[in-house]
Amino acid sequence: SDLYRRPADGSGVEELIYKNPSAFLGLSDWSLDGRYLSFSNSDLSGGALYVLPLTGTTAREPREVFRSKLPLAAPRFSPDGRYLSYIQQNIQIQKADVFIRPVEGSEGPWQISDGARSPGMWRNDGKEFYYMAQDFNVMAAKVNTSPSFTFEKPQVLLRPANGVPLNIRDLSRDGERFL
């Protein structure tokens, strides 16, 4: 699970960005400013969230943002890069929830969901946050990341028809279309 970078047009050679010392690395996001990647590493003993700088000339070393005794997955940057959303899985009760915490600092975390089937997704202006609830409803929460993080209780945005896929994978930048 090493990380490599190469231009999208296929030109040039692969560049090793990070040599992973373990077997489990869940690459999740690239910050909008292009300066960081986010990834998680989880096993039976728990999980951790990391950010990996892509700029500078020094060796790239990931910085641990958070560690838990529960598995963690899918860390995604807020549009301003100040916060990470992620999933925390409680295997004992078969439930996952979406949380948000700062990339730096000690405030939070904030539990956004009460049961989730998908990672959280930020609208590109940072004013709304989405996820798929345990009952397959697509939920939306009004959020604000400046000067500090605040959110309103999530509301049902849409109730998909029967036969929907098990997850939402991505969101258009304007928050109007889901994949």
What would you say this structure looks like, in words?
- The chain is an all-beta fold.
- It has no helices and 15 strands.
- It has strands at residues 3-5, 15-18, 26-30, 36-43, 46-53, 63-68, 72-77, 83-90, 95-102, 110-111, 121-122, 128-132, 138-144, 150-151, 155-158.
- Strands 11, 12, 13, 14 and 15 form a five-stranded antiparallel sheet that branches. A four-stranded antiparallel sheet has the order 3-4-5-6, with no helix packed on it. Strands 7-8-9-10 form a four-stranded antiparallel sheet, with no helix packed on it.
- The radius of gyration is 17 Å and the shape is globular.
Question: What's the layout of helices and strands?
Answer:
Blueprint: E1 3-5, E2 15-18, E3 26-30, E4 36-43, E5 46-53, E6 63-68, E7 72-77, E8 83-90, E9 95-102, E10 110-111, E11 121-122, E12 128-132, E13 138-144, E14 150-151, E15 155-158
Antiparallel strand pairs: 1-2, 3-4, 4-5, 5-6, 7-8, 8-9, 9-10, 11-12, 12-13, 13-14, 13-15
